[in-house]
Amino acid sequence: MHFDFGAAGKSAMEQIRVPELSIDLVRMRSRERSQRGRMRALLLYALVSVSLIGVGTGLAARFYNGVHMWFYGDKFAIAVNSLVIQHNPTLEDLRAVVNRAAFPVVLPVGMPSGTRIDRIMYAPLNHPNSITIIYGNARMNTHFGISLFDSVAVTNGTTGLPSGLTSMVHPASTLHVWTVGKETVVAGRQAAQPTQIDEIEGSMMRTSPRASLEATEPMLRSIIVEGGPGAVADAVERYAPRGYRSVLLDRKYIGWIPWLAKREKPGPDSRMAILTAIPTVHGQPDYMKATVHWPNKIMPKLGVRAVRAFLQATHTGPACRCELLYYRPNRATFAIWKVSVLDPNRVAKFVVDAKTLAVRAER
Amino acid sequence: MEHWAPGEMVSAAMSGGEAERERLIAAIWPRCFRLALTVIGDRDLAQDAAQEACVIVHRKLRGLRSAQSFESWLYRIVMREASRARRRNRPADVRGYEEFRGEEPAAAIDVWSALARLAPELRDVTVLFYFRDLKSDEIASILRIPHATVRTRLGRARERLRAILGNYLDDPNSEAREVKQHAL
User: Looking at the 3D structure of chain B, how many domains does it have?
Assistant: First the structure.
């Protein structure tokens, strides 16, 4: 007996049971993607506008360490020869940067409610004389950056710029600049609403370095989030156990684990990258060609092996529609929580024995 | 080309708000999923690929130049996401149509087992040509491959299907459709 392949195929397709579509998930992922696109543009904006007119870095390296800014008539120029970028900073991360800064740092305060710090950028690594903070507000769907400079690193009203800079100046009218103590604050006029900037400026005038750090804490992550900003991280922060170094691994990071385990490598902290030897192309810093270094680790080799053991035992892979919360409650075990991306409150808890790497579900 | 959703619904979603866009996504979802599953053969991967396609529609629909191009645009997205899902997962991880065997009528089992034995690139053109009635130039545009390649793949797929199914009967119009198109 013959059968018509096309007709049979169409009929077979129609008989396929279709699972329910989670429109909430589609909406969430769509917003996340759009935000990521905006973040990329914002990062570029922050790098290019704040570090704009990167002087020939060879020249800058000879004269200055870190960052220097010149205001020259109605124009400005900035030199940069290294940069540290830190995504999803925690309070410890920000405190470490503020404590070793070359100036008493008054952090921006008076932010609209719901604002979070998505990333910080600073230079140089050891004693930053410039810190740029990138804020995001999912409720208001806005992102903006504010840069804080050691006033010593800002030269005002010079009649001329160091040789080599004259061709790399930009209009100062694109910036909103004010000083707080020994700090010069710079915000891009296009990056935030003027009323918002006025509110921030007023609040910063009334606060102290310590109080501003305390006021900033709610805007920071309380756990280490390896991956982009997202609803999962917000939910996990609410129930992640306190007192441990908890790390949330997204699907991309989960995909790296077998590779890392095979090579017996510890888990790198992808949140922080150091860019050095930033070359200049046509008078602009080319960050893509800089030397990039990820100096920190978030889990030891044994931790990576424990996560791999968990992935193998539970048949979990990058396509799992889940993220993993990892922490070490004691020397003998690792705790790994499997968090559903569809419903971040749905958590399956597992324990991995540090010696045998045996995996068992936790009740 | 078979329609994913009524034209008015597409136009309304392009010019309207989130509610209209979500109504369109709910309407296209079953076909997105079925097409993804037919070319991938694994429910989880197909769900991921179809969902990803819906996310792209949600994000980028407004940037579409005209409602007329929606059909081919969506085919392109679903096929690309399906192909990515297949690439990301090794063949050993994919169950490959196995789960259909227990629940479908005999004819459908033949279809699934034949598809499972076709190479992915032959499967893609076969599904679009036979199951979605697309012309070979439309398939070429969707898969972004030369028209001649589509014809070659269809020819190879036919040979393979004859070998697999034995009692395989081609749609008598299909080859004529292709020849006519080629002549034009």
Answer: 2
